Each structure stands twice: as C-alpha cells, then as structure tokens.
Amino acid sequence: MRGQFITFEGGEGAGKTTQAERLAKALNNAGIETLLTREPGGTFGAEAIRDLVLSGTSERWSGLTELLLMYAARLDHVEKLIEPALDRGVWVISDRFTDSSMAYQGYARGLGKDRVEAVHKAVLDDFEPDITILFDMDPVMAMKRVETRGEEISRFDAESIEFHKVLRDAFHHIAEKNSDRFRTINADASRDAVHTQILFAITQKYPDLAGQLTDGA
Ligand code: TYD
Fold first, then answer.
1. What is the DSSP string of 117-169?
2. What torsion, rounded to 10 degrees, do the Cα atoms 65, 7, 103, 66 define?
3. Among the atoms of ligand 1, which is closest to the Cα of residue 98?
4. How far apart are CA 152 and CA 147, in angstroms?
5. Residue 208 CA, ligand 1 centroid: distance in Å
6. Is the dihedral of CA 68, 95, 103, 63 positive or negative?
7. Is residue 189 a contact partner of residue 198, using CB atoms and an 8 Å limit?
8. Which residues line ligand 1 (CB under 6 A)?
9. Whole-number pLDDT of residue 57
10. What's residue 76's pLDDT?
11. Residue (of 205, 210, 200) closest to 23 by Cα position
C-alpha cells in the first residue's frame, strides 16, 4: 500500500522539527515505517539550493526568484525522495512543503496566490500532502523562542514582526481554503500537549490507528 504524506507548516520557532521526530516515533511504534525530511532541502541538490536561499540579506533574492528556487528544490525532493518512499509504502513527514511557498512567497512577499498556483501546477501538477498540520502560534512568542535557541538566524527569521503577523494570517487563510487537508493545532502549548494534539489529528484522519498511536517521546 502507498504511504501517506504528512506535512508540518507554520511560522518560525513553533517547534515543528522536534514534533516531527516525535510523531515519527509514535508511528514507528505502531509498526509504520517513516521518513523524516524537510524543505527547502531533503536531497543533496535541494540542500545546496537551501544554502543559497536561506543565507545572505533579506534583499538577496526577489520574491519570484525565491519561489522558483523553492520549487526547483522541491521537484528534486519529490522526484528523488518523497515519491519513491511513498511508493515503497513509507509514510513521509516533511517539515514544510508547498503551503510555505504560498504563505511566504505568495502572501508575505506579495507575489500573489495565482502566481504560486501557476508555478505549482507547472512543476508538480496536482501533487499535494494527504494531511497538513498547521502549528499556530503568536509570532511575538515564536520569535522569542527562535532567539533563545541561539541558532543561526536565517533570512526569514530576520524579517520584522509585521512580516510574521502577515504570515500567520496567510497560513490561517490557506488552512481555511483547504480545510479537508488541514488540521490546526495550538503550538503555544507545552511540548507534550502539542504532541497529543498531533496524535489526535492523525487518528481523526486515520481512524484505523486509534488505540495504536502511543506517545513518541
Ligand atoms: P528553517 O530554518 O528550516 O525554518 P523553520 O525551522 O522555521 O522551518 O528555514 C526554512 C525557511 O524557509 C523558513 O523561514 C521558511 C522558508 N520557506 C519559504 O519561504 N518558502 C518555502 O517554500 C519553504 C519550504 C520555506
């Protein structure tokens, strides 16, 4: 049976990466093989594009160039890693995917929905995740988390709080328009509470897993 494609979306500092690892463990405990990946990146070529697109000043790339770089990386990722894994029956969890392009480049950078949809259609046709978990969080709190993590600040982390507020609204809007696919969770909660919300969302989508998904801590 074909695997399922799960994506995690949201602004910066919402804890997606840790939660993706924990969900993968929970699925493994239920006997499901998983593959954890991220965007931009996931393959050798896409990681090289990631370096290009995330470093430098915020003016380094125009919104459209950024979008095209994201989709160049994404096509490599889908063709070489995601599709083959799904075909083998592996469940793929990606930390960000196409909805990030719509939110960041389409809305926050102002390229517009139609432009992003046109590029999506040209590159990936109708390919989309089976379920998308949106990590919703107050951007002021989220930026505090990013600062205290002490990681290198990416071009996007360096954007203003205003940019991150627009981004949050954009994700809400995208989630509303794709309500079949999206589940929104409150990422302000504790790590355990966020994990519980994710397991709940997954069992709602896959009722056969009810009772099988135990804490992936
Ligand atoms: P990353 O450090 O992985 O951020 P996070 O931990 O918040 O996911 O950097 C990825 C950045 O790239 C993030 O700021 C969002 C941005 N991005 C886009 O602008 N468009 C896209 O299509 C994708 C996948 C990511």
1. HHHHHHHHTT---SEEEEEE--HHHHHHHHHHHTPPPPTTTTS-HHHHHHHHH
2. -10
3. 22
4. 9
5. 32
6. negative
7. no
8. 12, 16, 39-40, 54, 70, 95-96, 100-101, 104-105, 154, 156
9. 82
10. 98
11. 200
At position 51, the amino acid (one-letter code) is: D
Secondary structure element (H or E) that encloses residue 91, with its range: strand 91-95
Q: Quote the tokens at residue 45.
A: 């070529």
CA distance 110 to 215: 40
Helices (H) and strands (E) in the chain, counts: 9, 5
Domains of the chain: 5-206 (3.40.50.300)
Q: Which of 100, 109, 145 to mutate to test the pocket of ligand 1 (most atoms within 8 A of CB)?
A: 100
Cα-to-centroid distance, 207 and ligand 1 (Å): 31
Q: Which atom of ligand 1 is nearest to the CA of 39?
A: 24
Average pLDDT by consecutive 10-residue portion of the chain (217 residues)? Answer: 97 90 97 98 98 88 96 98 98 98 95 98 98 94 78 68 91 98 96 96 96 81
What is the C-alpha to C-alpha distance for residues 12 and 28, in angstroms, rounded to an integer?
Answer: 27
Sequence-distant (≥ 6) Cβ neighbours of residue 200 within 8 angstroms: none
C-alpha 174/C-alpha 151 separation (Å) is 28
- Among candidates 21, 101, 9, which has minimal Cα distance to 63? 101
